Every structure is written in structure tokens, then in C-alpha cells.
Amino acid sequence: MRAEIITIGDELLIGQVVDTNSTFMAQELNKIGVEIYQVTSVHDDGDHIRRAVSEALDRVDIVITTGGLGPTKDDITKHVLCDFFGATLVPSEEVKQHVHNLYKYRPEVLNRLTETQWLVPDKCTVLENRVGSAPLMVFEHAGKLLFSLPGVPQEMEIAMREQVMPYLAEHRPTNETIIHRTIQVTGIPESALAIHIEQWEDALPSTMHLAYLPKDGIIRLRLSGYFDKNDTTAEQQIDTQMAHLKTLVAEWLIATDDKPLEVIVGELLKAKHATIATAESCTGGKLAALLNKHAGSSDFYKGSVIAYSNEVKANVLKVRQEYLDQFGAVSEQVVVSMAYGVKQVLKTDYSIATSGVAGPSGGTKDKPVGTVWIAVATPEAVYSELLHLNGSRDQITTRACTKALTKMIKYLQD
Amino acid sequence: MRAEIITIGDELLIGQVVDTNSTFMAQELNKIGVEIYQVTSVHDDGDHIRRAVSEALDRVDIVITTGGLGPTKDDITKHVLCDFFGATLVPSEEVKQHVHNLYKYRPEVLNRLTETQWLVPDKCTVLENRVGSAPLMVFEHAGKLLFSLPGVPQEMEIAMREQVMPYLAEHRPTNETIIHRTIQVTGIPESALAIHIEQWEDALPSTMHLAYLPKDGIIRLRLSGYFDKNDTTAEQQIDTQMAHLKTLVAEWLIATDDKPLEVIVGELLKAKHATIATAESCTGGKLAALLNKHAGSSDFYKGSVIAYSNEVKANVLKVRQEYLDQFGAVSEQVVVSMAYGVKQVLKTDYSIATSGVAGPSGGTKDKPVGTVWIAVATPEAVYSELLHLNGSRDQITTRACTKALTKMIKYLQD
After folding, report:
1. Is the pTM of this model over 0.90?
2. 3-class DSSP state for residue B140?
3. Do B13 and A191 touch (CB under 8 A)?
């Protein structure tokens, strides 16, 4: 079964907001075998929304729109859908009660604009928006379904999980399943990798498809397989192919799934009952934030020192002043001392340190923008590496984190 | 003049990758008065790409595609466009030389797949892709333009800035200009705000349009105006309206432009020649990473201590052990001590501290998930606040950062 997503809002088309909603929805729908055929971002404009909805309903069985359900004038999705499906807006006592409950402790939110939130089209099913005032609407049209969800990511996510997915499971059970498997490799160019695994790739059955996703020095290889839901050998079929692929790329394999590198680091640390800290200069807290992003990080993460200034490097991380004076902050001596220092000060088993020139200014002839030293400390030793990275400030710091985490994984796996 | 963006790649439609390319391209094109009418994400599939290109060229004057230009089998954009425009692939000596130069020090990248990169359609103009091997292509079709760019964000960004924008300025100069102005407010519900400014909004000229963009407790109000490029009063017209709006919302105004809060904090600190540090528990480095995200942060940012464990809070930040024992880590006493401690240890003028339960586990009856204490220290005093936040771990920590930065701005402006 195929679906399309239509994201509604001028903010998406002037580059003010990145569309993360369709990413989340695609992930959820893929899990139950619903393939996203197309994502379309359109303006808060009646004709535009109508055309996009009409075309999508021609192509696929399920259409989900997000956005344009707020109480303000620029939000028109409800009216446009009402018109499109030939419905009339009528007050809903249920939605009214819900909105009153929602704002029980914030009566100032209840006003004549909020009141429009409990007007709903008479030709739709209303699902509860547990965390917001905009009603979730489901329209049936010639055997097809259209869901209208809010554009605020938090409301949309809860609506998808608690309402849309159960509704689809009940009303449009699918006979298909899509299985994705991803591994991550590093240290080989994309084209060389493609040649290396060409024979295997060419011999894949027509129901499987390989994609190359290079990013920040890592190539993710994703194998997707399309199966009948009742095919009990589906998992086995795709895993057999993946096992072969893993053998072929063993030399460059960094992860056997699509987990972020920081999650892999966390899992390896937890398995060892070990702890980690970071000492960051150029990455400025990005490594710490990555390691803490996911639930359960307090099991292995104790803390970090973000040492942007030399003073902090010397006073808190106990980097020797003569190293800073003689070799500069961006040097092997300093980054190794930082890794060692933070491990001592925060009493952890492992640590990662970074010191570099993230740019755009601050580069010199000897140490141009993109020069980054990283160090990884284990209970036994400290390992350092000099990187020459390209790109913007954000890309340089992101790649430094990727490299540092990759290095950490290597020593944790040893 | 209107444009459309077509992003090509299965990874966008299975939710593996967030489309940040179209955000960047929309921003760039808006600056020269080109309005993005629609963004469409399609599969690496010939028929799908052809239909999307054909429909977009029917609607607008400029179409930009990204993605599908890699050397591997799953990348087919070049072949599809060649076919669509009735062109033939021919070798380009120029692109060949460029690719050889690009991989001068990495000869292992030159192989028979890379060789396909210097095959280009004979009916297109080839622009230089300075940082990658895929040629940038421009097709002319019935007076309209189609650009084909790589999907790797770094390559696409450089291609847009260095090739597409100058090409458009020369070949399709526009007579229009679009001006956006954004302010940020906090502390008033969206609907109450809309009612408060309704009279002003209704009286706007038809060439101007207001949008409400609520996110993480902040509402951005964006006023967009469409003008003739030669209208010398355009800036003045929109600024006059904005001045009126600012007066109306003065009570809730937090920023008079669209700058991220951390940038505003940085500018206010620089103006005072003052420095800042952060002491983070639940936000785990997110505040530090935000403050360091932008160039020039070393002017005001000295460092941070990410104190996830109580041990680090006590040993490094000098939080009194009896506070930790008596009140717990998530308490006013501890967060105030953290803010004070980091200011002392890192010798800064200002500091921000956070301590809370980010979830999903770790909540108790007294301190459920979402309970976050924040503190802001100035040279004179420490101010704390208790937050009750909703959402996922990521949302809770993001909102805590937003609240903390908002509070810091308040005291920096005083």
C-alpha cells in the first residue's frame, strides 16, 4: 500500500523551517509496510492545497497532510478540506470539552479564535489530539483515506503514534511488509565500494534494492526488501543477503545497523560497565550533547569539560602551560593532555578530546581552518589523530565528532 | 519569478534522511526575489522523476533538482534528464580534468564508476562542481531553466552559491523582490496574540502577509512583502508596518529579528565585553553546543562543565554535598550552586545552569519527567526558575535551553 505526505505551510517554502515531520511519518508508515510514494510541500493557499490533495488521492490510497490547523488567519487547511470533500463545519461538543480540559489552568487561551477549533467538518471522523487544540480529521473518499494532522512536530508525532497508526491497522491492514537493513562502513570511497560489491549487488533478487548513503565520511548501505506479509522467510531472506554483504565489506565495517555512532559507543560502554567523559575545544559541547541525546546516558556518561579558552584547559583540565605556549592549543600535546586530564578530573574509564580550528576565521598557514586534533583515551593509553577537514564550521565540527566516535568504537571493540 | 525544487532519493521517502537542502535553496532564492512554489520529494525512479520534472516545468520558470548524481547504480538522475530533454551522453574533457584534479592525491577513487562522472548530456550547459565529481547541469527548455545539483548538502550549497545564483542573476534577472521581517515573542498564547494584533493585521496592504510560527514556547511573527525591484520605498513600507507591530507586542517581544536566541545572547555579551559559561546536567552539553555553534563564539564563551553525575557536580562545580543529599540534584539549591560554581571555576561574568529530569525514565512522583530547574547568574546575582515541560527527551532539553537563553537575554538587556 502506498501513501503520500503533503506538508502545508509557507514557512517550509521560504526556508524558515526544515521539514522533519515527513521524515518521522515515513519511518512510522514504513514499519507497517506502507510505502511513501511522494512528499509535497505546498503553500497556505486554497488552490494549491486542493490541487496537491486531488493529485495525491489519484495516485495513492492514503494521504496525510500536516499543518495549517492553527487558530490564526494564515491557517486554512480545515476550510479547504471541508470545501474539497463537500462538507460543512459544525460544532463538536466533544472537541469543545477536550479544548476546555486542555486549557483548564490557562483560561486566557480560551477566546474567540480558540473557539473555531471545535468546528469540525460533518463528513469526517474526528480523532483526539491529546496534546493540542486542533482536531485530527480523517476523510474517506472513494475507498481512500485522508488524514489531516497539525504541523507542530510534537502534536503530529503523538497523533501518528496514538491515533493514525492504530486507525490504519484497523481500517487498512496491509498485505505487504517492507524490511530495511543498514550497515555503516568507513575508509573506502563510494565508487570503489560499489565496484567491490558489484557482483553481489547484481545478483540480488528483484525484490531487493541497495542504496548508498554517504555522509560525513561514513557510507551507510541500506538494503530494502519488499515481501508478502505472510512470507515467513522474509527476514531470513534479507538477513542472508546482509550476511554476505558484511563479509564482503568486513574491512571497512563500523556498524552492523543504522544506529547513530554515539548510541553504539554507549552500548559498548554499558556492556563493559565503563564510563566516559569528553574534553572539547573546537566541537564546543557537540560530542557531549550527542552522548547525552539518548535515554539511559547516565549509565555511562559522567560529564564533560568544554574548554574553549586556554585558561580552562590549563586550570580545569590541568594541561601544562608550556604545552599551550610552545605547541599551541591545536596540537597533539594539548589534545592528549585534555583527554588524559578530563579522565582524571571526572574519574572515568574512557574519554574523548578535540582541539581544532573550526573556522570560518582563526586559521593560519600552519594550521588552516579544518585542522583538528582528536584523542581517545582508554584505561590503558591515549591515541591521537590529526584531521584535515573541509566544509563549514558546522560540517567541520560534525565530522570531527564522527571521526572521534568512530575511533572510540574501534578501541571499545578491541 | 517562481521556482520549484525536486529532491530525488529513496532515503528521503523512507525517513532515513531529513531534507535540509530545500530549506537552504529556498533561502538563497528568496533573497533574489525568486519564490519557491512547491517542493517535491520523489524516488530514484525514472518515471517518477520524469513526471515531477514535467509537471514542475509546466508550473514555474525555474526547476532545481538535487540528488541522484552519484557514481553508483541507484543514482539515475542524469540518465533520466538526458532522456527527458532528448540529449545524448558525451564525454567532457573539462569534467574529466576536473575529476582528475579533485582526486590528485587519492588515485584509488579513480575507477570505472568514477569515469561515468565525466559523461554529460550534449544539450546542457555544464557548471563546475568545485568540491565534487558530479557535473552540475543546466538545461534550457521552452524558455525555462532546469538545474541538476548533487544531493550531498555541502556540494549543493557551494554549487548554489558559486554557480546557480550567479547564473540566474545573469540569465534570469527578476523584477521582483521579496522582503521578510521576523520578530520573536514569548509569554502569550498564539490565539490571544492574534486577537491582540487583529486590527493591525486586517489593515495590512494586500502585498503583505503575516505568518505565525510557534515553536518551543517562542512565537515567531514573519511579515512578508512582495515588491517591484525598483520600488525604492519597499524596505520603508515593510519597516513601517513592523514598527507598528513591535509597539503592539512590546510586552512579549524577545527579539526584533529571526536570529537564534544563542546568537542574541552572544551579541549582547560581546557588546558588554563579558564572558559566559554553562553548567549543564539534563541539557547535557546542548547549551554549550548552541553557544558555540556560530563563528566568533570564542569572543564571549570560555567553557562549560557538563555535570551529569553528582560526583562531578560536587568535585568540579563545588556544589555542597549536603545540598545534593538533602534536596537532590534536581533542586533550586543545586542549580543555583552549579551556576555560581561554574562562574567561579571558569572565571566568567555570566553563567547558565540546568538540572532536571529529561526522561523518558528517572521521573518520580515529586519530580516527574519534565521537571527542570534553570539558573542564570549575572555579575550581581543568581536567578532561578522551576519549569514543568512536556514532550520527548529531546523536546524537554530543547525547551529548557530556550527558556534558559530567554532568561539570559532578559538579564543581559536590563
Report:
1. no
2. strand
3. no
